[in-house]
Structure formats: structure tokens, C-alpha cells
Amino acid sequence: MNSATDYDVIIIGGGLAGLALAIQLHQLPCRVLVIEKDAYPRHKVCGEYVSMESKPFLERLGLPLDGMALPRIAQLEVTDIKGHTLHTSLSPGGFGISRYKLDAALAGIAMDAGIPVLTKTKADHVLFINDHFRVQTQQEQYTAKVVCGAWGKRSNIDIRSERDFVLAQKKSLNNYMGIKYHIEYPWPSSLIALHNFRDGYCGISNIEEGKSCLCYLTRAGNLQQSGNDIKRMEHDILMQNPHLKKIFTEATFLWQQPLAISQISFQQKEQVWDHVLLLGDAAGLITPLCGNGMSMAFHASKLAFLAIQDFLSHRISRDALESRYTTAWKKQFGTRLAAGRLLQANFGQNQVTSLLLRTLKTFSFLQKPLIRATSGRPF
Question: Which domains, and CATH codes, for the chain?
Fold first, then answer.
């Protein structure tokens, strides 16, 4: 083997989970390579809210969060299509930070530590043979003892490998699209809101430098019914909610065009595919209304690290590595993913959403258990 292309671990995808895992593995020490198709900094379709459960972990990675002047979010507001409002405290709450800033900061930590991060590089094929992996990019072939897939919601590898969620027929949980803007708007720094509209909902919260992230999820049918015109869809459908009408009318939009992603699926996924450990959205996507996708990505990186550490130290077999990671992943995230799918199936339905909000306002003791069901503890 060529020592220049031979690694202990190759991570495909340099987002939150991939970079966090690489930083942890480097501390073993471990020869780790990150392959990332984009460059840093970059924007990504994401709600940009991080639960406080991740704060100790991120600080251990080297992020000086207390010195970054990030908004602390402790209140939640939910509205139905008519503008009826539920307001509640959010425990443990979180903080706002853009993917543009967060991914670049983590990449900087990794690169400063000497971890090779190949940007603008696509992994085209992953082959497992003779208890080792071969990863083929456009420029080079690499080998590794372990490969981790942190390539996001849907990648060329998913499509080429015909994973089950890619082949599934279009149903209520697998035919969504996401749209994101950064805006200037006088939004309370401690508040995150979810505003419902027909077949979708839109979140708004503060990030760094006084900006706000405005990100919404909707079924693809809404765009099709609007002649595939995003602005028309926002005017005709989203702005039926008076809260969204006020935001879209009064905000200063900082980008000429929004970021968009389609074919989002919330169906169940496997955590190990052809011996590749999957992390973040590649392993399972929690609905944005639960607000914990970024923390789940970080926590999954820790679970993978603990299992990989034992495997590379020859304390466990490959079968045990895969079993341990899958079991730990399901234990940590199974309940909140199920709760998220249940909420997702009902949000965006006008009458159901209104009934749920009225019920939660009347029986306020249900609010905290519902929030706890979609979040975790510090790790």
C-alpha cells in the first residue's frame, strides 16, 4: 500500500459530523482523511439552531463558544396558518450560529491540527474488499481500515447504491424541499419560532452579527402548484400566515436567491451500509421542527469515535464495531426520530395543527415532555 494514500479512517463529508469525528480521531492519534465536495466557508440549507446539549462537546473540540457573541435562545413560539400562537420556554434551549461560520470554524480546527481535508473533491465509489476499503475520487484512490459516511441528506453514493430511501415511492415523509435565507429583521435574540402554512412550516431565529436565519420546509407539491416559482409560492401560500406575511414583507433579504434543496426524506435509514458507518443526515434525518439535527450530528460523531477507537485498538471485531455503533445510535436517537416523524406527519395540516396548539395551550403540562422527547442531554 502507498503510505500517502493509506489511512486508518476516511470520512466522506466534511460537515458537522464529519469534521467533529475527524478532530476526535486525530487525538488518538489516528491517520484520518476528510473528503469534502465543497469549499469553506459555505452556506447550507439548515435551521442553524444548536441545542445546548452540544455546548460542552463543542468546547472540548476547541470552539470558544463563550467568546463568539452568539445569541442564546430560550423561548419557542409556534403559530398555525391563521396566526394563533403558542409561546413556551425552551429547555435546555440553544444558541444560533450559521453553517457558514460553524463549518469553517471546525474545518479550521481540523486543518490547524494537521488533518488532511480534501475540499472540492467528490468520493465517487466506496468498495469493501479483504477487510479494507477503497475510496475512489476523481483524482486518486485511497485505502482505509474504516470509512464513515457523513455526506448529508442525499448523495451521489446513495443514488448509485440504490439505498432504500432513494428508491421509495413518494409519500408523506419523503417528498419535501427546503428553502433558506439570511435576513435582517428586528427579531428577539432569545426566540425561535415555527410558523405553519399549508403543507409546511417556516422557522426563524437569530444567528451571529444580528442576522436571522429564515428557513422553511414544504412538500414539493406546493412549488409545483405555484408554477415552480418560489416567490409566487411564498406569496400565495406562506404569506397566508400573518406572521410570515409580516416577515416576508418587512425583512431585508441578504441574498438575491435563496438556497434550496429537494427530495428530502424523513424515512428511516440504516446506520451501517456495506460496512460504512453513517453519521448525521446520512444515518437518519430528524424533522427541522424538532430543532436538534445539528446536535444529533455532533453526538453521532462521538458514538462513532468511541466504537472506532476500540476497533483500531483491536479490542473489538468489525462486526462488533458495526453492532455497537448501530445499537448506541438507536438508543440515543430512536425515540426522538419517532417523535419527529409523528409531529412531521401532522404539522402543515391546518386543522390538525390548530387543534394541537389549542391542546398544548389548554394542557400546558404536556409542553415540556414533548420538547424533551425531541432533545437529549449533554454528552
Answer: 6-47+98-170+266-348 (3.50.50.60)
